[in-house]
TrEMBL record:
<feature type="domain" description="S-adenosyl-l-methionine hydroxide adenosyltransferase C-terminal">
    <location>
        <begin position="175"/>
        <end position="262"/>
    </location>
</feature>
<dbReference type="InterPro" id="IPR046470">
    <property type="entry name" value="SAM_HAT_C"/>
</dbReference>
<dbReference type="Pfam" id="PF20257">
    <property type="entry name" value="SAM_HAT_C"/>
</dbReference>
<dbReference type="InterPro" id="IPR002747">
    <property type="entry name" value="SAM_OH_AdoTrfase"/>
</dbReference>
<feature type="domain" description="S-adenosyl-l-methionine hydroxide adenosyltransferase N-terminal">
    <location>
        <begin position="4"/>
        <end position="149"/>
    </location>
</feature>
<dbReference type="InterPro" id="IPR023228">
    <property type="entry name" value="SAM_OH_AdoTrfase_N_sf"/>
</dbReference>
<keyword id="KW-0949">S-adenosyl-L-methionine</keyword>
<protein>
    <recommendedName>
        <fullName>SAM-dependent chlorinase/fluorinase</fullName>
    </recommendedName>
</protein>
<comment type="similarity">
    <text>Belongs to the SAM hydrolase / SAM-dependent halogenase family.</text>
</comment>
<dbReference type="Pfam" id="PF01887">
    <property type="entry name" value="SAM_HAT_N"/>
</dbReference>
<dbReference type="InterPro" id="IPR023227">
    <property type="entry name" value="SAM_OH_AdoTrfase_C_sf"/>
</dbReference>
<dbReference type="InterPro" id="IPR046469">
    <property type="entry name" value="SAM_HAT_N"/>
</dbReference>
Length: 268
């Protein structure tokens, strides 16, 4: 079974969500559509990019992501084929790049310009319905990627809204890319980098917070390894690293925001 995922900032109350699924069904009725998330913060490309990363837990598929403040402007509509074999479909505004990295990197990129694979007439403000969803369905039907438009150079794409964390000696400089409903702070550190750096459970890490004194936390596997109300750092459940409080909010405790820079100093 072919799988298409849909991710957007439309809101679950929007009829646009159902219309996109209907558009896919009209082109390829046997596709399984998975609604990954439609409650993204409006216009928040960083949040959308981080959410789209989670398609690593979905079987090979065609992943549409629409967080598109520049819809109808000169920004390109693109398809990225990744080395895992998936296709990422959406605007060229950086939103697809983090997912491409966790899915093995970019194999090739094409612009969507061929009107044979669009719903016409194309609305200048609803490319999700008229360009992106149809492209996913046609790809799933076996249309060759080259048929959609011109091949693009990878290094000409709009950059990601966040890079991967940087380590110099024993200091990791990280960025907050998500805060979940419990107040846990998720960083731009991948599990594989965390492991490659040799960080182990029960190790101590000194965390330097924006405008706050340093705090020391323990590396754990789960929340209950520290007492109620204590801080900890651990691998999150979607491939990144998080700082949390056992049954509390780390973000509220230390006034952390998305985009905050946090430095981690590793113990020997």
């Amino acid at each position: 079974m072919k799988i298409v995922t849909l991710t957007s900032d439309f809101g679950v109350q929007s009829q646009g969500v159902g219309i996109m699924e209907a558009m896919i069904a009209s082109i390829s009725p046997h596709i399984k559509v998975i609604h990954l998330m439609h409650g993204l913060p409006s216009f928040d490309i960083l949040a959308a990019a981080r959410t789209l990363e989670t398609v690593r837990y979905v079987p090979l598929g065609y992943h549409v992501c629409i967080c598109d403040p520049g819809v109808g402007t000169s920004r390109k509509a693109i398809i990225i084929k990744v080395n895992r074999g998936d296709y990422l479909i959406g605007p060229d505004n950086g939103v697809l790049i983090p997912a491409s990295r966790v899915l093995g990197g970019i194999s090739s990129v094409y612009e969507i310009t061929n009107e044979n694979y669009m719903n016409l007439p194309v609305s200048p403000i609803f490319h999700g319905r008229d360009i992106f969803s149809p492209a996913a369905a046609h790809l799933a039907n076996g249309v060759d990627l080259k048929s959609f438009g011109a091949k693009l150079k990878k290094n000409h794409l709009v950059e990601s809204p966040y890079d991967e964390a940087d380590r110099i000696a024993e200091v990791i400089t990280a960025k907050v890319i998500h805060i979940n409903k419990f107040g846990s702070v998720h960083l731009n550190i991948l599990h594989k980098d965390w492991d490659n750096w040799g960080i182990k459970s029960a190790q101590t890490v000194v965390i330097s917070l924006p405008n706050k004194k340093d705090i020391t936390v323990i590396v754990c596997d789960t929340f209950g390894e520290v007492a109620f109300g204590e801080n900890l750092i651990l691998k999150d459940d979607y491939g990144r690293v998080e700082i949390a409080v056992n049954q509390g909010s780390f973000a509220n405790r230390y006034s952390i925001n998305i985009g905050s820079i946090i430095k981690l100093t590793l113990s020997n």
